[in-house]
Design a protein that fits this description.
The chain is an alpha+beta fold. It is built from nine helices and seven strands. Among the domains are: 124 residues, Ribosomal Protein L30, Chain: A (2-Layer Sandwich); 50 residues, no CATH class. The strands form two sheets. It has a five-stranded mixed beta sheet with strand order 6-2-1-3-7, with helices on both faces. Strands 4-5 form a two-stranded antiparallel sheet.
């Protein structure tokens, strides 16, 4: 019997790898890296948040400097309050307009608490207040961060007409409809924006109710050179403290 010889399988030659341009490889790499970053952001709950820059990350020495600045702020506040009272400037009006012009990380929590009590929670906000000894004592505590003075009737009108608003259901609402004013203050005889301006200007009987109705006025950041960033008082060439009737010049530049 003839023995059948086994068939010899043909061995295929190995195929060479397809050539992929370097540009495509780089795009793939960038795409994979982006997908990995997005995955991590979702896992950490940071998706959509702005990534911190290296300059924003605080070093240990930054915390030390910030702590020291807050302690110095508290010491200076106590020194200002304890100073013997000099002869007070004559009060030209019962109405004071206060603007917060400075203050961030260098403030002591007690300073921040006083500012918050006057609704001055952010820089370049302004509020009207009745001129009292208690108010000026508060202003003395936060003097490096505020400037104030006696607004004219025109300044009051311009501020309320342009920047005035109230809060309804958590949202700021401009005073463009007198019905809003009447519903909130009609029981006090204040029915329109002109009544509201008049009550503020003369510090009327219902001034407190009007202030509760109004939100703190958000002013414009002044142009470069208007405020020089100096914590010295205005009378000594700085930015802070009492400007008396010169506050009207600053209001024009920030309204």
């Amino acid at each position: 019997m003839a023995v059948e010889e086994p068939e010899v399988m043909a061995v295929e030659e190995p195929k060479g790898l397809d050539y992929i341009p370097e540009v495509i490889l780089k795009k793939r790499k960038n795409r994979d890296e982006l997908a990995f970053i997005r995955k991590k952001q979702l896992e950490l709950g940071n998706f959509g948040k702005k990534k911190k820059k290296v300059a924003d990350i605080k070093r240990p020495e930054d915390f030390v400097l910030e702590f020291r600045a807050k302690e110095v702020d508290l010491i200076r506040m106590k020194q200002r309050v304890k100073r013997p009272k000099s002869s007070p400037a004559p009060i030209n009006s019962n109405l004071v307009f206060i603007i917060r012009i400075q203050g961030k990380n260098d403030m002591h929590p007690k300073t921040k608490k006083v500012l918050n009590s006057m609704q001055l929670r952010s820089t370049f906000t302004g509020v009207f207040a009745k001129a009292t000894d208690g108010l000026f004592q508060k202003l003395l505590k936060v003097q490096p961060y505020v400037t104030y003075g006696y607004p004219s009737d025109k300044s009051v009108k311009d501020l309320i007409f342009k920047k005035g608003y109230t809060i309804i259901e958590g949202n700021p609402v401009p005073l463009t409809d007198n019905n809003i004013i009447e519903q909130a203050l009609g029981e006090h005889g204040i029915f329109c924006i002109e009544d509201l301006v008049n009550e503020i200007s003369r510090v009327g009987v219902h001034f407190r109710e009007v202030m509760r109705f109004l939100g703190p006025l958000k002013l414009n950041k002044p142009e470069a050179g208007v405020l020089r960033g100096k914590k010295r008082v205005f009378s000594d060439g700085g930015d802070t403290g009492n400007r008396e009737d010169k506050i009207n010049d600053l209001i024009i530049k920030m309204n």
